[in-house]
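Give me the 3D structure for Rieske (2Fe-2S) protein.
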Amino acid sequence: MSAWHPSLYRHWFAVAPAAALRRQPLAVTVMDRHAAIARCADGGLLALEDRCPHRHAPLSAGCATGDGLSCPYHGWGFDRGGALREIPGLPPGQTPPAVRVRAFAAREHDGLIWLRPDPEGANAPSQLVQALQPSARRFLWRTRWDAHVVDALENFLDPLHTHLLHPGLVRRGGARTAMRAELRHTEEGFHVDYRGAAAQSGWLYRLFESPRTLERAHFAAPGSAQIEYRYARGGRVRISLHFTPLGMRSTDVFASLHVEGRWAPAWAVRLLVWPLLRRVGEQDRRMLALQSRNLQRYPGARGASTALDLVREPLRRYWDGEPLPAPGSGHDVEIML
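Predicted structure for Rieske (2Fe-2S) protein (337 residues):
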């Protein structure tokens, strides 16, 4: 994983909370590609490469013009498609040269701004993302993990570390239950069903949940992951994390909690649930930073895996641009959770 596979740029990545985009352009990065995002007068979004082709000043430091961006250095103005439309100081009657800035596709969904870093590719984010509706969202959080995106994704989707890294919060260290993990590949990625236990040993479950009928971990390429719980009394909870690599060792993480069919007003989630979930997130962030720093001491080292490491190989294959297994295929393992 020394360079980004070209196919990755054809997908959509979360780059910022929509509330972070105000009057000034916003600088964002996806896999070492930099963009300036602004809101147009009609409410739509524009995204241009964050570099004026004149003298390479960042367009994100310039101004939104209602239908484009102007450079902060000499005022060159570009429309939302990236075409040069104005050069201050150009004599009347003269037309600006045919200069363009690379334009990216951008859209807004469920409180986040999404960017596709290639002119061609998927028309919209994954179905897993599109299924998330603002009416069910209870919080939205952004953080940054000093880790490769595959390590970050694996951390969220891997339940085996929770006894040690989140003891008592997610699962109790000494309490394990025999379960069956069933991985199935999908059109968008894969999901893993964990069967064999309707309850969990940690405080988060005991304080805020009830017996479950489904515990499912989803991955939707390229960077969306979700833990879904369904309950015997009805209702569904989805914890979603969207991972956007800035570079090889830095990944932005956008987390949300969606609740349907259960009493969970936003104020109660913020007051009671959020402090515990944030603590879990911080524990993961610190461990991933520790892992990343150690990997730099051992360049090229490859991890040893067992059958219990269900998600690592399909994640690696996807991010390396390798062919994926056919939808519906998969395998099962016995696991002690």
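The mean pLDDT is 95. Let me know if you want a second pass.
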